[in-house]
Amino acid sequence: MRLPLLIALTMTAFAANSVLNRAAVGPGLIDATAFGTVRLWSGALCLAALCLMLRGTVRLGGPGRVAGVLGLLLYIYGFSAAYVALDAGLGALILFGTVQVTMFAGSLAGGERPPALRWIGAALAFAGLVWLLWPKGAGSVSLLHGAAMLVAGLGWGLYSLAGRKATDPLAATAANFLIAAPLGLLLAQGLPVAPDAVPSTAAGLALAVASGALTSGLGYALWYHLLPQVTGTAAAVAQLTVPVIAMAGGMLALSEPLTGQFVVASVVVLGGVALSLLKR
């Protein structure tokens, strides 16, 4: 039972990132790109301090480092750029759909052959997400911002696949953040900001720091600890629970309404994930 509980804890940390982002960026407490940069630097500093305390040193090399750093940058800033103008539900669908395709393709290329139930469960879980998250109404979709979310999904898929090579999860995650943080400062200069962006507030910065140090830094280190213990396709499907957990967190923390559609769609998503992880 230890492994499923740790996976559930990790997915909760990922979902908390979404709730913290919405709590900070939604009310205009901080710009989305600034949130991503502060998140990245906070994670880097927290993980570096932990490495110095527990390992006595910080090592920047290791297997999968280039893919890990590139994937982290693509995810953080693709996500920030996309949500300048992209509907949150549609953005989540694009993100997690791309993650599924990237991780399944990478795992198949690496020789993994997932059972039929995993394909069926993944399809069922994603269908539940489509039902839950598809935007209401017929608003126009920005192709530019949709493409940015595609980049974010590709980045997170690469980051997760790179984690399967990590021999020291804490050191590997710290190295990814430490290398990505200064590069991120340069990348952020060329990203668009929201037309109604406001200067960063103390509350917005605090939420970004919490997201970076706790739910990103420590959450990603735990993810890198778990990835070598599960198949790539199983890790991909497990992440389909994140939007459901994030919406539940929004209901608890942000007083968002509970709907019958959420209840039924959540059962479909979680049932599809459970089905995909069955042995036979």
From TrEMBL:
GO terms for cellular component: membrane. Its main location: membrane. Residues 148-277 form the EamA domain. InterPro entries: AA-Vitamin_Transporters, EamA_dom, EmrE-like. It holds the Pfam family EamA. The keyword Membrane applies. The keyword Cell division does not apply. Keywords: Membrane, Signal, Transmembrane, Transmembrane helix. The chain crosses the membrane at residues 32-54, 66-86, 92-109, 116-134, 140-159, 171-191, 203-223, 235-254, 260-278. It is a multi-pass membrane protein. It is found in: Membrane. Residues 1-15 form the signal peptide. PANTHER family: AMINO-ACID METABOLITE EFFLUX PUMP-RELATED, INNER MEMBRANE TRANSPORTER. This is DMT family transporter. It comes from Ponticoccus litoralis.
